[in-house]
Amino acid sequence: MATVWRSTVPANVYVIVHTQGCVEVLSPAGVDLGRLDVVPQATNAAFGGDDMQTLYITAGNPDEGNALFSIDLPIPGLPY
């Protein structure tokens, strides 16, 4: 079940797949570009930083606690 999606300027889409605990990265044509596994389960994502090139991912579940991850990207993301 995908719960959240975010997009980068060239229109790649980052989809939070909560039930699989990951972020799927898709091209504008829907081609799978990769996957970021997040433990515990990914819950949300947002682009930030001065250049909008940092993807922040929240994660958590009652058994494993909560976490905040970040990854620097080569292209900027779009704000909410």
Task: Describe the protein.
There is one protein chain. This protein has 80 residues and is mainly β. It is 0% helix and 56% strand. The chain is built from no helices and seven strands. Strand 6 and strand 7 form a beta hairpin. The model has no long low-confidence stretch (mean pLDDT 83).
What sort of overall outline do the alpha carbons produce when their principal axes are compared?
A: globular
Helix content, binned percent: under 10%
Mean pLDDT: 83
Low-confidence stretches: none
Tell me what portion of residues adopts beta-strand conformation.
Answer: over 45%
Number of helices: 0
Order of helical and strand elements:
EEEEEEE
Structural class: mainly beta
Q: What is the terminal-to-terminal distance? A: 21 Å
Brief summary:
Helix content is 0%, strand content 56%. The protein is mostly beta strands and 80 residues long.
Search tags:
single chain; 80 residues; mainly beta; four-stranded antiparallel beta sheet; three-stranded antiparallel beta sheet; 56% strand
Strands, helices and their partners?
Blueprint: E1 2-7, E2 13-17, E3 22-26, E4 32-37, E5 42-48, E6 54-61, E7 65-72
Antiparallel strand pairs: 1-2, 2-3, 3-4, 5-6, 6-7
